[in-house]
Write a structure and sequence with these properties.
By secondary structure, the protein is mainly beta. It has 4 helices and 30 strands. β9 and β10 form a beta hairpin. The two termini are 23 Å apart. Its EC number is 1.14.99.n4.
Length: 465
Amino acid sequence: MDLTVDGTLPSALNGAYVRNGPNPQHMPVGGHHWFDGDGMLHTVRIKKGKASYSNAYVQTSRYKQEKNARRPLSLKLGGMVGGLGVIHYIVYKLRERWGLFKTKDGTGPGNTALAFHNKQLLALVETDLPYIVRVNDNSHTETLERQTYGGNLAPRFTAHPKIDPATGTLYGFGYNLSKPELHYFAISSGGMVKEDFKVTLQQPTMQHDFAMTEDYVIFLDFPLVSNPENMKRGLPMLMFDRERSSRIGVLRKDTSSELGIRWFKLPAMYAYHVANAWQERGNNGWIRIRIFLCVYDDSFSIQSTTSSTLARMSEITIELERDECSVRSLADELRCEFPVVPDRLVGRRTRYTYAVAFEKEAGHLGQAAGLVKFDLGSPDKSVAAMLRFGSGRTGEDDGYLVLFMYNERTNSSDFVVYDARTFSNKPVAVVSLPQRVPYGFHGKHINAAQFQSQFPFDIHFLPDI
């Protein structure tokens, strides 16, 4: 069904925009966290100025088993608190032992983000391998299969892999909340696993994102620590330890073991999302790595929905030859999250990054105040422009910002397009959607060429249930 469009959809948006997010299929029991919901994809198909919409669950193993059982079966982050958390864990292990919940094909909800690699659109979560999904011409999104990379990869991925724009190689990692380690991997543009080795940590930590430059990957070992002993004291298993330092690990891409990693210390802090990173070489040949990311200070709590809106755009600078590392805030007065740069500039010097802006009193990540454009090349004025809600080209900021906007008063949603260069409050186009789109996480636009390249794959279809 063609939807009503106010304005004109640019031809550069031909293809599809897909956004992922958590949407529990069953009423949560025993505690709930926003990260726990089943992955639901909301898709807008754009073609020749027209738009259509559909939504569909990612057909994960967890989703299908719980759909058939008509109740939750898997272990959820929101349930891992206090003594009840211990009970939930025991019940979960018994279900696994008795065959009531099968873990062989993964347990993740596929609910966080998307990436396009090797002609495949991947639904991502950090507790499982990706699921290959495909957008049809009528905007319907179907799940094809779980991407196991031929069994050559540890069964954890990252929700935010980095794809090198020069080589097409995908870099990523998977962490383990029960062991002090992560697995670093590199996958070629053709889908072959090139590297996969363990990196030892001091404690099991939740590392949601990482950074990449032309020659390096950088791990962000912030002190969000997993400790089951916490539950015996009535506390969550996953807690921020403000007494522990942050560690930043720098590893050359061409390294084949963890022996080459270098660790740098910073004060306790946390960051969910990296905007971008790049390396610079001075006149003396020394290398400096610059990482831009949304940083929470040591008051961070993963259990608090309010604190999730209090991140500031910041820069971590690493001087490799001097063995120095520092962090600074770009705009103390501004809270922001979900930063983005163009895919073709990931790991390369960028002047601009865009993010969602929040008022200090925002109650959760869905209550955005607007969009913000940061000028990373300006030492005096980092905030280049602010776009407040309600008030195909070649340049770096030539392009469009697209998002789903939900009106809590009318319980209705729109797909909204803004011009990234002019940053005008007036949208380029607004598409009225036939139903509410709930708050979610990360989206991905696939262009017309990528859209067409999805179809040659002969992959077993996983029917919706």
